[in-house]
Amino acid sequence: MLKIAVLVSGSGSNLQSIIDACESGSINAAVKIVVSDRKEAFGLERAKRKGIRAEFLDSKSFSSREEHEKACAALIDSEGCGLICLAGYMRLVTGWFVRKYPGKIMNIHPALLPSFPGAHAHRDVLAYGAKVSGCTVHFVDEEMDSGPIIIQTSVRVFEGDTEETLGKRVLEQEHKAYPEAIKLFSEGRLEILGRKVIVR
Ligand code: GAR
């Protein structure tokens, strides 16, 4: 069974959707550890409630980003995880981390990449006047929000949308897309060919 590590910084609603999909048996996988760079992240609480190991790693206690990630990797490896899911993890991972886990790190972004990368996707979508948005689950490479795309789902942008209303509509799709991408991975059906992900 696939063992998953989930990295969070906040609410962890995507984490919850992954845990639920594992628990219900729709994915043959288990979340073994949740790591957060923020002590108050509700994702840690969600993990504890399910009896999942929850660890806070304060980046300020480490001399560099890589040292912080080495500690994170040690936790991930101690649980034998074969997939790392970034779920609202608001840190950019280093090349060292990406190279350590080739093809084994996924991220979810709340827009249709390569449009609107970065930390304020909904704000940027609304400011640009885009008529559709959505979410993207992708493998992580050494650039921000740029790796090979696994799944994208679109939603309409309505006049009068706010970051909150658009964010809620996108989040509903995220909660379906992330478990679906993990399911495909757990079944060995994802093949990375250059920039592309082929679903077998
Ligand atoms: C999600 O919308 C996720 O796509 C986004 O943060 C939110 C986390 O929500 N991630 C990014 O913006 C990464 N650039 P959650 O903590 O409830 O899963």
Structural overview:
With 200 residues, this protein is of the alpha/beta class. It has a single domain (2-199), classed as 3-Layer(aba) Sandwich (Rossmann fold). 36% of the residues lie in helices and 26% in strands. Strand 1 (2-8), helix 1 (13-23) and strand 2 (29-36) form a beta-alpha-beta unit. Helix 1 (13-23) packs parallel to helix 6. The radius of gyration is 16 Å and the shape is globular. The mean pLDDT is 98. Bound molecules: glycinamide ribonucleotide.
In short:
The chain is 36% helix and 26% strand. The protein is built from 6 helices and 9 strands, in the order βαβαβαβαβαββαββ. The strands form 2 sheets. A 7-stranded mixed β-sheet has the order 3-2-1-4-5-6-7, sandwiched between helices.
Question: Secondary-structure map with pairings?
Answer:
Layout: E1 2-8, H1 13-23, E2 29-36, H2 42-49, E3 53-56, H3 65-78, E4 83-86, H4 95-100, E5 105-109, H5 121-128, E6 132-139, E7 149-156, H6 163-186, E8 190-193, E9 196-199
Helix pairs in contact: 1-6
The structure holds glycinamide ribonucleotide.
CA-CA gap between termini: 19 Å
By CATH reckoning, the class would read Alpha Beta
Find the CATH topology. Answer: Rossmann fold
Mean pLDDT: 98
List low-pLDDT spans.
none
Domains (count)? 1
Query: Given the structure, what is the number of helices?
Result: 6
**Major beta sheet, specifics?**
7 strands, mixed
- Any idea what the CATH architecture is? 3-Layer(aba) Sandwich
Which ligands occur here?
Answer: glycinamide ribonucleotide
Provide the β-strand percentage band: 25-35%
In spatial order, strands of the major sheet run 3-2-1-4-5-6-7
- Overall helicity: 25-40%
